[in-house]
Amino acid sequence: MTAITTTLVVGATGATGKHVVLQLLQKKQHVTTVVRSKQRLLNSLDEIAPNASNEYASSLQIKEASLLDLSDDDLMELTSHCDATVSCLGHNISFQGIYRDPHRLVTEATKRLVNAIEANQSLEKEPKKSKFILMGTVAVPNPNGEDDTRTPGERFVQFLLRYLLPPHRDNETAAAYIHGKTDNPNLEWTVVRPTDLTDGGASKYEVFPKPIDPLLGGDRSVTRANVAQSMVDLILTQSLWDEWKFKMPTVYDDLN
Predict the structure, then answer these.
(1) Which residues pair with 32 in a beta bridge?
(2) Is-contact 161 139, C-beta < 8 A?
(3) What would the pLDDT profile of 137-152 be if each residue is shown by its tens digit?
(4) CA 4 to CA 28: how far, in whole Å?
(5) What is the mean pLDDT of each run of 10 residues along the chain (256 residues)?
(6) How many Cβ atoms sit within 10 Å of the Cβ of residue 26?
(7) Cα–Cα distances in Å, from 61 out to 25, 87, 236?
(8) Which long-range contacts (CB under 8 A, 24 or more apart) does 105-110 make?
(9) Is 189 helix (H, G, I), strand (E, B) or coil?
């Protein structure tokens, strides 16, 4: 029998985050979210699974707020009873979302959430371990240098992404920050890097330690529901978590 956990999901109204919330609820887990619109989240859950917002209401705690507007005390309260935190934050794909503030949404949210988790742990006589899952992309290189060397053309594309698209630079900076968190044995993390995202239901997926397709022109993709499933499995399956913690796995749909 799976133990009951509580997970904080940020970016919960996003295309992947809503699947994380729903799949955790469907597995009888408790979920806490921070969203700017409660109704938008409820509607998005019902779009995937009719009546989900009513069926799982008792297990879903929703705080209406802009995450970066919350105080440090607010974030400590939000994370105080959570076993895991999942960040599916991203920038809106619009001119304003890409080029206007906050340019460092993912990075600042990651830092503040980690600080809140560690502040709570500092108050505990026996700090409990906390899992932190950050969603990135296969275009974000692993800071440990263990990804295969990209071709000159791919490195040029990464250079352009880094300096012309602030959201990509934000994803890289957030991944580098969490990758550097090695000083706290009670904070365990992983950065899940999906390949090209598509819509569709959950099915089988594959996980690899590094990208297996070229940055451009690859023939692999993964549904957002499968990315969510991979993160839910990491939270609920300890052996899987032990395999991938402190790593940056890539996720693809299973072709078999």
Answers:
(1) 8, 61
(2) yes
(3) 999 999 998 899 888 9
(4) 7
(5) 88 96 97 96 96 96 96 96 95 55 86 97 92 96 91 86 82 95 95 95 95 86 97 97 97 91
(6) 15
(7) 11, 16, 19
(8) 105/68, 105/170, 106/134, 106/167, 106/170, 106/171, 106/173, 106/174, 107/170, 107/173, 107/174, 107/177, 108/68, 109/10, 109/67, 109/68, 110/134, 110/174, 110/177, 110/178
(9) strand
